[in-house]
């Protein structure tokens, strides 16, 4: 696992059923591209987050395939429909097999 | 002074004359609070009329990153420091939170640093490491490494919006004098002083970069260039390398004195920690 | 053929321009290949897709990009001047609130960023934006 990985998500706490809300997510990750060389001229191996998904109550909102051209500390902003109260589940997949997850509840009212 | 301006101007012309000026009159409002990005220059900054935040000189896309704490990538590191705050480290079995219950209590500290304690000029980094070595029995953190810059960002952001207000008289006077001397001393193969860019030529383009006044009210700052938090001393080092000078040591007496002098040139600007720059 | 800098300078400017042009298709075709892999060579229709990017990026390391294509099932982003053009692909699920997304990307130099949307009816739409990546004086 890459060190110091920390996800952040911004989801409104409340929505009206059927609302479209904006979600922002960011995870601290160096996103080593595999293109850089170290001081000795050796290629630094690629180590990135290669996929990000957002789901709500088990249904998919967005599924992003990520390449090394996405910046360090990858950021995504997108919109979701909220049909009912429930929980968003955010998942980031690291090249090394590690999976980082975080959830965020949203109320209807 | 005019001569310098003309020469630099000519050098800029030979490269692309791109402008990345953001809109005039843009306001820096974070969470509904408007920060002071222009102020009348203090009397001791005798060669300028107005002091201005580096935020003004950035493109609107870079500016936008600082308008919302979620969009601002520096807050990833602030979050890491919040975790670190409660983490026990060292022989005494203590965390920051063992002594300092709430980090919010540090509101008001950032604008007054660096300051003189017992005849020594101290920066926030010194205070953090003093806690670590004297009270926690832990290893000191390196001046510009991640744990330190994250922690100084967390402590600094508690004072966001407060005006920079360092003491420059009394015990601080000799340090301030030294910092001022460094600011105006030409060094390196390019034979340039801080003032040549940041006083004589701010608001002009140096190649494709829009020169700022070199204010430090937003440090540690998240730079797009290296995608991490940067201490003011690390930035001084970068400037010195750019003018082909042998940089002073981070945390050393020269950079500390310069930090005090530069902070004093930003009197009246809001603390912007953690800012976003290119 | 090896050319020293001095020799290159003495060669006529016409030849030099030709050499510069000849350098371009290598990267362009990489992007074409990546796009073709997505579309299976289907026709690309202009319009119906928006890409928002800064005209000038202060640093190529972190360039904000937004894409939007109502009716898309997925939108892929390509950076035509990067060593590998693929950037990211947004696939929209049943609870997607709009067929749009934003991210921050790396651009190696001044170039066109290309967005391709695969639509619900199986057609493909394209849009591109030129981003000038500046080489900073000291900031960059």
How do you describe this structure in short?
The complex is a heterotrimer of chains A (109), B (278) and C (140). By secondary structure, chain B is of the alpha+beta class.
Q: Topology of this structure?
A:
The complex is a heterotrimer of chains A (109), B (278) and C (140).
Chain A: E1 7-10, E2 14-15, E3 19-27, E4 49-56, E5 59-66, E6 75-82, E7 86-94, E8 99-108
Parallel strand pairs in A: 2-8
Antiparallel strand pairs in A: 1-3, 3-6, 4-5, 4-7, 7-8
Chain B: H1 2-13, E1 29-30, E2 33-34, E3 38-40, E4 50-52, H2 60-64, H3 74-85, H4 96-99, E5 115-117, E6 120-122, H5 124-135, H6 146-157, H7 173-184, H8 194-198, E7 205-206, E8 209-210, E9 221-223, E10 228-230, H9 232-242, H10 253-265, E11 276-277
Parallel strand pairs in B: 9-11
Antiparallel strand pairs in B: 1-2, 3-4, 5-6, 7-8, 9-10
Helix pairs in contact in B: 3-6, 7-10
Chain C: H1 5-10, H2 13-39, E1 44-46, E2 50-52, E3 56-57, E4 63-68, E5 72-79, E6 86-92, E7 96-105, E8 111-119, E9 124-133
Describe the protein in words.
The complex is a heterotrimer of chains A (109), B (278) and C (140). Chain A is mainly beta. Chain A is 0% helix and 53% strand. Chain A has a single domain, classed as Immunoglobulins (Immunoglobulin-like, Sandwich). Chain A has strands at residues 7-10, 14-15, 19-27, 49-56, 59-66, 75-82, 86-94, 99-108. In chain A, a hairpin with a 4-residue loop joins strand 7 (86-94) and strand 8 (99-108). Chain A is elongated and about 60 Å long. With 278 residues, chain B is an alpha+beta fold. Chain B is built from 10 helices and 11 strands. Chain C has 140 residues and is an alpha+beta fold. Chain C has a single domain (26-133), classed as SoxY domain (Immunoglobulin-like), CATH 2.60.40.2470. The relative contact order of chain C is 0.22. In chain C, the strands form 2 sheets. In chain C, strands 1, 3, 5, 6, 8 and 9 form a 6-stranded mixed beta sheet that branches. A 3-stranded antiparallel beta sheet of chain C has the order 2-4-7, with no helix packed on it. Chains in contact: A-B, A-C, B-C. The A-C interface holds A 20-22, 33, 35, 55-56, 59-72, 74-83 and C 61-63, 66, 79, 82-84, 86-98, 100-107.
């Amino acid at each position: 696992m890459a060190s110091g990985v920390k996800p952040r998500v911004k989801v409104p706490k409340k929505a009206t059923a059927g609302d479209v809300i904006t979600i922002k997510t960011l995870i601290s990750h160096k996103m080593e591209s595999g293109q850089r060389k170290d001081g000795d001229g050796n290629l630094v191996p690629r180590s990135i987050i290669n996929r990000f998904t957002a789901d709500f109550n088990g249904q998919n909102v967005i599924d992003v395939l990520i390449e090394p051209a996405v910046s360090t500390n990858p950021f995504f902003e997108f919109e979701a429909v909220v049909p009912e109260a429930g929980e968003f589940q955010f998942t980031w997949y690291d090249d090394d097999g590690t999976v980082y997850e975080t959830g965020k509840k949203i109320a209807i009212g | 002074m005019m001569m310098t301006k003309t020469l630099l101007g000519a050098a800029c012309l030979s490269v692309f004359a791109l402008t990345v000026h953001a809109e005039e009159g843009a306001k820096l409002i974070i969470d509904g609070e408007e920060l002071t990005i222009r102020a009348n220059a203090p009397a001791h900054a005798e060669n300028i009329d107005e002091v201005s935040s580096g935020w003004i000189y950035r493109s609107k896309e870079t500016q936008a990153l600082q308008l919302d704490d979620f969009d601002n990538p520096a807050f990833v590191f602030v979050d890491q420091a919040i975790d670190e705050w409660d983490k026990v480290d060292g022989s005494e079995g203590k965390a920051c939170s063992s002594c300092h219950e709430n980090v919010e209590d540090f509101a008001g500290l950032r604008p007054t640093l660096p300051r003189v304690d017992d005849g020594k000029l101290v920066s926030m980094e010194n205070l953090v490491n003093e806690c670590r070595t004297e009270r926690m029995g832990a290893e000191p953190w390196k001046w510009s490494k991640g744990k330190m810059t994250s922690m100084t960002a967390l402590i600094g952001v508690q004072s966001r919006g407060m005006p920079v207000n360092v003491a420059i008289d009394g015990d601080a006077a000799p340090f301030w004098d030294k910092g001022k001397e460094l600011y105006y001393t030409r060094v390196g193969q390019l034979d340039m002083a801080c003032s040549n860019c940041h006083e004589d030529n701010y608001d002009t383009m140096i190649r494709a970069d829009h020169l700022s006044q070199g204010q430090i009210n937003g440090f540690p700052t998240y730079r797009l260039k290296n995608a991490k938090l940067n201490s003011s001393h690390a930035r001084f080092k970068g400037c010195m390398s750019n003018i082909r000078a042998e940089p002073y040591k981070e945390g050393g007496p020269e950079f500390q004195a310069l930090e005090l002098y530069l902070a004093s040139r930003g009197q009246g600007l809001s603390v912007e920690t953690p800012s976003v720059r290119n | 053929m090896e050319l020293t800098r001095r020799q290159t300078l003495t060669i006529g400017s016409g030849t030099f321009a030709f050499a510069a042009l000849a350098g371009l298709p290598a990267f362009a075709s990489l992007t074409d290949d990546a796009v073709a892999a997505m579309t299976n060579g289907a026709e690309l229709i202009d319009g119906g897709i928006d890409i928002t990017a800064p005209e000038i990026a202060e640093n190529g390391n972190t360039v904000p990009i937004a894409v939007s294509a109502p009716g898309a099932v997925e939108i892929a982003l390509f950076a035509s001047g990067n060593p590998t053009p693929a950037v990211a692909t947004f696939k929209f699920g049943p609870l997607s609130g709009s067929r749009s997304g934003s991210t921050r990307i790396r651009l190696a130099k001044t170039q066109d960023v290309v967005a391709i949307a695969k639509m619900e009816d199986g057609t493909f739409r394209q849009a591109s934006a030129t981003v000038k990546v500046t080489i900073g004086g000291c900031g960059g």
